[in-house]
Amino acid sequence: MFIRIQNEHHPYFPEVWNLLQSAFHTGERRDLKTLKRTLADEQMQLLVWEENHEFLGMAVCWDFKKFHFLEYLAVHANARGKGTGTTLMQQLLTDQPLLLEVQPPTDAINESRIRFYERLGLCLNDYSYYQPPYQKRGETFPLRIMSSPQLLTSEQFENYTTIVKQEVYEKWYL
Fold first, then answer.
1. Containing domain of residue 52, as a range?
2. Burial class (CB in 10 A: 0-12, 13-18, 19+), 68
3. Dihedral sign, CA of 90, 96, 97, 101?
4. pTM over 0.90
5. Per DSSP, which regions of the chain are E strands?
6. What is the CATH number of the domain that holds 40?
7. Which residues are 51's β-sheet partners?
8. What's the rounded Cα separation, in Å, for the pair 21 and 110?
9. How does pLDDT run across 7-18, given as a tens digit for each residue?
């Protein structure tokens, strides 16, 4: 089941940070100080998946009323290959549209990750998209947007990615 973490003093917070560091490169994640600051935002939900008091994985999902944006999904090394990622994603998929960023299908690992999300009902949109940087002068990365339950119209894509850029990235620049 998911537990929402709302401050850095939660016992699972250090495990969340360690998992983020191991699962995402520096340019693909927030720094620790900014992550702690985002916890105060009601739109941001840091969710930990645990069973029998064991940390299995985590997700960061933003609730923008019209849609949800999945910023991070990571499964602890001990829980990989056991369906944990599928279980986590199934809990996150609701009637509300869900968006997430993926690396372009340029190699077998990226293609496999895209197929994983497609099996869960997400669609790979064919619009040009660059992940905004996590720091003010940081790099952008060419990524793709996947959406559920269907492909986005060009208008939805523009509206939703503008909200993501402003609320998930730029709002937290120091």
1. 2-172
2. buried
3. negative
4. yes
5. 2-5, 44-51, 54-63, 68-75, 98-102, 123-124, 129-131, 141-148
6. 3.40.630.30
7. 54
8. 19
9. 999 999 999 999
